[in-house]
Amino acid sequence: MFDTLSEKFSDAFKHLQGKGKISESNIEDALKDVRTALLEADVNFKVVKAFIGAVKEKALGEKVITGVNPDEQFIKIVHDELASVMGNANEEVDLERVGPIPVLVVGLNGQGKTTFTGKLSKHLIGKKNKSVLVVPADTFRPAAKDQLITLSKQVGVDYFDSDLSKHPGDIAKEALAYAKEQGKDVVIIDTAGRLHVDDELMGQLKEVGEAIKSHNPEILMVADAMTGQEAVNVAKTFHDALGLTGIVLSKMDSDAKGGAALSIRHVTGVPIKYISTGEKMGDLELFHPDRLAGRILDMGDVVSLVEKAEEHIDEKEAERMMKNMEKGKFTVDDFMKQMDMINNLGSMGSILKMIPGMGGALRDIGDLSPAEDEMKRMKVIINSMTKQERQDYKVIKESRIKRIATGSGNTESSVKDFIAKFRQMEKMMGGMMQMMKGGGMPGMPGMPGMPGGGNPGFRQQPGTGKKPKKKGKKGGPWGGFF
Ligand SMILES: Nc1nc2c(ncn2[C@@H]2O[C@H](COP(=O)(O)OP(=O)(O)OP(=O)(O)O)[C@@H](O)[C@H]2O)c(=O)[nH]1
Ligand SMILES: [Mg+2]
Where are the domains of the chain? Predict the structure, then answer.
């Protein structure tokens, strides 16, 4: 997400490295680079102008703080301004009122409306404890109804069996009456898209809005983040016609440059409420401008990482593993479970990027797919092992190696290689446990198969073995700023 922008920003900040203090002359170059970076990321030029003006004013007005480098001070100002331009705090759909609350999902063709409808219902049911009804109201492309029903079954949400021969406004009204009868809290209505903004679509959506106006609907527009300024223009048109209450940026997992995320709030005044980060139903995040600013500036996003970990990692299982490891026991099964836990969090790149300082290191490494491929290869090998072998790899001798190789479609030397690596990991785990008992623990042991022989050579923060704290920790990589 926004890789090029991050890279350009980090180059811009280099202008201030080693300078005594921020001055009009020495921030000129940095500002120029920030400006170019934003324009290249397809940020609206008015937003860029306002942004640069605000950063300059703050930077020159900033008091000199002893012990804080000008580049760190400048990064902090850019961070706050990025967060501010995106709206500062997270705003979710208002769930604090009496239901059924209608959520009308609108947007152009293929932007991700139907997918988002499924994701939002999963989020509201699973995390907000709400009862939800989804309503197919796309009368333009009838197959959309089946698509939504399939997703509904997948996430376990009730759906309304809309009569697509009716007007979407009538469908919405009927669905709301039904939802009231059923005591539902939220009703999510998936509407039709068109290739371009056209009068017919706007007219129809306005009628749907009118039909449910008395219920004070949330109107969320889904916009593909990849489309940059186009998304901003479309949002403006939709907002003028319908009065949007929120925007959802979809496809943030792709290589979107950042233009839409950084401009849409400023241009339309409508808050971004959610971001969609993949095709799976769990790939939905609340939009936190400050955290995203942190990610853009390679400060990582430890808060989101911890939240993700809490959500996806089985605590009991982790505890059991920890206990075993303390006893010096680390099995192939444990290793497999660890790999699964990591996979559940997301791609290796996306997780590493959330760790402060890793963004730059990742760019230096480039492609992480060899490491991910190796993880997959290891899994296939492990899947061909017997239960006994997974509990104690030492029983694996020549004949077993042959069987595992044939079973997993690998060569014998690949299997031997895996065993050698596992032995090394086991040793490393043992060493780490010793160190933890002694009070200090080095950073992560390094993912197997990473370029650089298992240790990617990142600048690692000395770990404490404790849970990472929220922001505001003194002595972090940013001189205690964040
Ligand atoms: N990578 C990625 N793909 C997404 C995301 N959201 C949706 N998609 C994909 O985008 C395509 C279109 O998604 P839909 O949800 O059908 O879009 P829509 O707006 O309902 O499209 P219409 O109903 O035809 O207007 C599908 O292939 C989705 O899987 C996302 O956040 N990331
Ligand atoms: Mg759709």
Answer: 3-85, 101-294, 302-437
**In this structure, how many other beta carbons lie within 10 angstroms of the beta carbon of residue 165?**
8
Residue closest via CA to ligand 1's atom 7 equals 112
Q: What angle do CA 457, 415, 445 make, to 5 degrees?
A: 25
Strands (E), 60-184: 101-106, 132-137, 158-159
Question: Which atom of ligand 1 is nearest the CA belonging to 111?
Answer: 19
The more confident residue out of 126 and 435 is 126
Note the pLDDT tens digit of each residue in 437-466: 665 444 444 334 333 333 333 333 333 333
**What amino acid occupies position 148?**
L
Kindly give the distance from the C-alpha atom of residue 110 to the centroid of ligand 1, in angstroms, as a whole number.
5
Task: Name residue, tokens 């690692």.
Answer: 460
Q: How far is the CA of 114 from the centre of ligand 2 (A)?
A: 4
**Ligand 1 pocket, residues with Cβ under 6 angstroms:** 107, 109-115, 138, 141, 144, 193, 222, 250-251, 253-254, 276-279, 283
Helices (H), 192-331: 199-211, 229-242, 259-268, 289-296, 302-312, 315-326
Instruction: Point out the ligand 1 atom lying closest to the alpha carbon of residue 108.
Output: 25
The closest ligand to the CA of 248 turns out to be 1
The CATH code belonging to domain 302-437 is 1.10.260.30
Residue minimizing CA distance to atom 26 of ligand 1: 112
Predicted local distance difference test score (pLDDT) of residue 234: 94
Cα–Cα distance measured from residue 105 to residue 244, given in angstroms and rounded to the nearest whole number: 10
Q: Which residue's CA is minimally distant from atom 14 of ligand 1?
A: 112
> Which of 109, 115, 279 for mutating ligand 1's site (highest number of atoms within 8 Å of CB)?
115
Dihedral of alpha carbons 396, 397, 399, 401, sign: positive
**CATH class held by domain 101-294:** alpha beta
Handedness of CA 198, 199, 200, 205 (dihedral sign): positive
Task: Kindly tell me if the per-residue pLDDT of 283 is higher than 60.
Answer: yes
Q: pLDDT tier at 131 (50, 70, 90 boundaries)? A: very high
Three-state DSSP class for residue 180: helix
Distance 114 CA to ligand 1 centre (A): 7
Helix (H) or strand (E) holding 144: helix 143-155
DSSP 85-96: HTTSS-------
Structure tokens belonging to residue 234: 């479309």
CATH of 3-85, one of 3.40.50.2300, 3.20.20.70, 1.25.40.10, 1.20.120.140: 1.20.120.140
* pTM score: 0.73
| Longest CA span, the chain | 75
Of ligand 1's atoms, which has the minimum distance to the CA of residue 283?
31
